[in-house]
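Pipeline run #58 for the internal structure catalog. This entry was flagged by the ingest filter as a single-chain record with no existing model, so it goes straight to prediction. Upstream metadata was stripped on purpose; only the residue string is passed forward. Reviewer on rotation: M.T. Logging verbosity set to normal.
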Amino acid sequence: MAPFAGYLMPIRYEGDTAEHLLVRQGVGVFDVSHMGEFLFRGSNALTLLQKITTNDVSKIPVGKAQYNCMPNATGGIVDDLIVYRLEDELYLMVVNASNMEKDWNWVNQHNDVGATVENISEETALLAVSGPKAIDVVQKITDKDITGLPYYAAVKATVAGLPETLIATTGYTGERTYEIFVRNKDAQQLWDALFEAGKDFGIKPTGLAARDTLRLEMGYMLYGNDITDETNPISAGLGWITKFDKGSFVSSDIIKAQKEQGFPRKLVAFEVLEKGIPRSHYKFAKEGKEIGEVTSGTYSPLLKKGIGMAYVDTAFSALGTELDLIIRDQPVKCKVVKAPFVSNTSVSQWLAKK
């Protein structure tokens, strides 16, 4: 366990590599109750969400979800997040724990349209059941058929005897994941039911260290590392969730102008070609000149090599570019590659069937 953002976080149970491979091959359960949850209600909820986020929230059908981010006043990123449309005029925003207070203040600062916003973070627990066998476990304790539930969707069902429980098919591992939202007082009941139902599938608890290596194999960003208040969504590769055609939003003019001008550095994925493990803040060099810095790095348990993400000078950001990563004052060869590093996941197979 380790303290983080006011919570005691479960970092590891059995071991990082064992838990990582369990999620890739079977099923594990992450306690991610530290995440923040805000509800947006009423006829002006959409107006507020469109104003404070970069993606087009109006495109979310009821029962679906959308990856999004909130820009700050200078074109940086307040937080990245997921928005669920639960009903016509009811939305759920899930934010990062480390940004919860900042996000809540930002939302309310910009709520000049009279939307009803409620912070339910402290009363909400969240368990993420992740892996190829996750569906087998969750379906056993759910009264509704969820086998046909698509990726990035949400539905209410009775789960572990708890009525009106929200099940979301989002996740942060690249594996088929069911994120189950319950009230704090019901979390133990849900946990016990999951582990009873998962006995035959080898279910085990999994920690946040494995969650970090899993997300890195997918090239998923971590706020505070790969994106911050200082990083522009376009330079971070989030142009696909930045919709200028939806109308103006916070700092949209600034972000658009920066896009047109170009960026000195871009976020790239890279793999290590030699022996060495990249870590945050390690420097990249080319011909003796510093040209970048690692934001997230690890040893991939599945690929058995070092991988990571980094901001590098735009001139060296093209796929296939070889760079020197400085580890203990020695250059180690790396190459810019396309994320995800791992493509044969249960999510990719799930999507291929659609």
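catalog note: The mean pLDDT is 96.
catalog note: The chain has two domains: 2-215, 262-343.
status: ready for reviewer M.T.
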